[in-house]
Specification:
Elements (H helix, E strand, L loop, with lengths): L1 E5 L10 H11 L3 E4 L4 H4 L9 H12 L3 E5 L7 H6 L26 H18 L5 E5 L12 H15 L2 H8 L28 H29 L5 E2 L1 E2 L8 H4 L7 E4 L16 H11 L3 E6 L18 H11 L2 E6 L25 H15 L12 E5 L1 H9 L9 H12 L5 E5 L9 E4 L7 H12 L3 E5 L21 H4 L1 E18 L4 E13 L3 E6 L8 E8 L2 E6 L1 E3 L1 H14 L12 E6 L6 E6 L5 E5 L2 E5 L4 E5 L1
Helix pairs in contact: 5-8, 6-8, 8-13, 11-12, 14-17
């Protein structure tokens, strides 16, 4: 389990480089990432390349046994390129070019930009092909599914639609363009969603395809870069770093063409007082592991208080630097790279704090980082151990996009029920995988399929087959609502899931910020919110009913026998105790080995291997915790991680 740092030699006087490398070696740093924003130094003038300064930095680290990951610097073209080719700039939805002065303001479709991006990438790859210290490549930095409205993107969008639909007749039919007299009679009429109208005011089928196109477009760029790196610098793994941004590309498609996933991990430094908050990045980490079902990297890890686009935040509390890094290792990261070694003293990110503050004097956070390096390096015996999960949660980018396009009701967002189910099963001490909806379900005992809003017939079939063969499926409200084009299905909800769920909705009530009680059979009364499916059972048994509003007494949560398995249907958006209750029922019926009595915010991940196995026990809270596990009392300080060999 390897610890690294992000380093920017171009930002610092060379007199600091050797001292930094020495301190990294002394601290236990095994890897550095460099050069993602350094195009202007690598190609200071058109066609004039200067790798000498980067060669010197790479050699410094290599001499100390520290590996290097280099980045293609194509996120930030130099100003001479914009001056020579101003049309390469990204275009906003009002049709105006993005103002220069920020990063990532180029269009990844523009053919002139691509020529220059190809050239710098190929020159770098050829130059470092023989350098053994360079162990991998990162493409760009934090690629998003950019909404660009330039002519090149419009042309590519039309081509994408022509390839998908073949004719305007098919496109008009798929979109239902007869509404508002919106039928196309020429491909020239097809444009991206210009203007300031909310996306919910636009045709939802058209909007979903535009989100899909933007994702595919940036993935094309990512794959183009990956092919060049593999051709000219073979044998080195290639990745890109992702995060939960506003316009996420489809990670499952994106990393099909890359060797491993890397993620930028910035957990909260100020814990929410609301016990309902799902703030733990355990969800994010399990999703990253689930993208390829393989170990992953953290390419940027929290090192200090954040501050750049917003006012400065509270710095990490004592224990957070160590605890959050070990949390990432626990959930499947095999490399954690901290952002950044030094806090910048120039540029917009000077208040996004790294390990060393502006004073250049190692402080509390650095000392905690150094202690964590020792501990991480001592966990080498657990390298290669697996996280075997009995529970999986399905994630679908089509659903994420569709919920953004058409908000369902006040306060309702797609990932909430995924996060609550994840938190509920983790609260039982169970490993949880978050996987793409098209992944195989073999080996799982429980599969949660929340809010299967945009319907894929193949997914419906596989979930039904999984239940019929003895598995447990948990479905939720807003399932089976739309077809693949994001048009409403003319069926009783939950549409194609009705037979396996054994229940149907006669009505639904989007209640937004209101709340309603749900009453379980044993008299337990819990709170629901935002959405209520008013259900009638077909073959299902009622686990809880509404205890308020005009649908008082109607079923809210049900369970149905489906072949040899079980299907639960949660017809509302519950508070956390609702999901805890359902998860407990499902785990008990599936005879899963739960750990009873875990305190809130205590997380356990079990890793197993041939040579060693261990439980990672993490207190993700600023208060100490104590509990009994396997007859032994476990006490945890705030943000403490204990690794117990088993």
């Amino acid at each position: 389990m390897r610890v690294g740092v992000d380093y920017y030699p171009e930002h610092w006087d060379k007199s600091l480089w050797a001292a930094d490398a020495d301190l990294m070696k002394q601290t236990g740093v095994k890897l550095v990432r460099m050069a993602e924003f350094a195009w202007c130094r690598l190609e200071p003038r058109d066609g004039v390349f200067d790798f000498s300064w980067l060669d010197e930095a790479v050699a410094l680290f290599a001499d100390r046994g520290i590996d290097v990951v280099l980045c293609t610097p194509v996120s930030c073209p130099p100003l001479w390129l914009y001056e020579k080719h101003p049309d390469i700039v990204h275009v906003e939805k009002d049709g105006t070019p993005t103002r220069l002065g920020i990063r990532s303001h180029r269009c990844v479709t523009n053919p002139v930009f691509l020529q220059y991006a190809d050239r710098i990438t190929i020159e770098m790859a050829k130059h470092y092909a023989g350098n053994a210290a360079v162990v991998g490549w990162q493409i760009n930095n934090e690629l998003e599914a950019y909404f660009c409205y330039c002519g090149h993107c419009i042309d590519k969008y039309r081509t994408w639609l022509q390839e998908k639909y073949g004719s305007l007749e098919n496109l008009n039919r798929a979109y239902g363009n007869v509404v508002w007299s919106g039928e196309y009679s020429s491909w020239a009429q097809v444009t991206p969603p210009f203007g300031t109208l909310p996306h919910a005011w636009q045709n939802p089928a058209y909007m979903l395809d535009y989100y899909r196109f933007c994702s595919d477009n940036v993935i094309d760029f990512s794959n183009r870069q990956a092919a060049q790196l593999r051709q000219y610098c073979p044998g080195r793994p290639v990745t890109t770093n992702v995060w939960f941004c506003e316009h996420m590309p489809d990670f499952y498609k994106q990393f099909d063409g890359l060797d491993f996933i890397s993620y930028d991990n910035y957990p909260a430094t100020r814990l929410p007082s609301d016990p309902e908050s799902c703030y733990s990045h355990a969800f994010h980490l399990d999703m990253m592991r689930g993208v390829k079902r393989q170990p992953f990297w953290i390419m940027e890890q929290l090192s200090g208080g954040k501050g750049c686009w917003a006012p400065m935040e509270k710095p990490p509390l004592p224990g957070m630097i160590r605890g959050y890094a070990l949390q990432a290792f626990a959930h499947g990261a095999d490399t954690v790279v901290h952002f950044r070694w030094r806090t910048a003293n120039i540029g917009a990110e000077m208040h996004w704090h790294g390990l060393l503050d502006h004073s250049n004097v190692p402080g509390r956070r650095f000392r905690e980082f150094a202690d964590m390096c020792i501990e991480a390096n001592a966990l080498e015996k657990l390298q290669g151990t697996e996280i075997k999960a009995d529970v999986a949660i399905l994630f679908a980018f089509d659903n994420e996009y569709a919920f953004r396009i058409q908000p369902q009701t006040d306060g309702y967002y797609y990932m909430e029920q995924l996060q609550r189910l994840h938190r509920a099963f983790m609260g039982l001490g169970l490993n949880v995988d978050i996987i793409g909806q098209h992944e195989k379900l073999d080996g799982y005992r429980i599969v949660c399929a929340p809010e299967m809003y945009v319907t894929d017939a193949g997914v419906v079939e596989r979930l039904n087959e999984f239940a019929m063969k003895g598995g447990t499926v948990i479905l939720t409200t807003r399932s089976g609502v739309k077809d693949r084009n994001n048009n409403a299905l003319m069926t009783l909800l939950p549409g194609p899931y009705q037979e396996m769920a054994g229940v149907h909705a006669v009505e639904y009530a989007p209640i937004g910020w209101e709340a309603v009680s749900v009453l379980f059979g044993d008299g337990t009364e819990l709170q629901a919110k935002q959405w209520c499916d008013v259900l009638e059972t077909d073959t299902a048994e009622v686990l809880a009913s509404y205890n308020g509003d005009y649908y008082c007494g109607a079923p809210a949560i049900t369970r149905n026998a489906c072949g040899q398995g079980q299907v639960y249907y949660i017809g509302t958006v519950g508070t956390q105790p609702v999901y805890d209750r359902v998860a407990g029922m499902a785990a008990e019926k599936a005879a899963l080995p739960v750990i009873a009595g875990l305190p809130p915010r205590v997380e356990i991940v079990t890793r197993t291997g041939r040579e060693a196995s261990a439980k990672f026990i993490f207190n993700n809270d600023d208060q100490p915790k104590s509990f009994v596990m396997d007859g032994q009392e476990i006490s945890l300080a705030p943000f403490e991680m204990k690794v117990v060999l088993i």
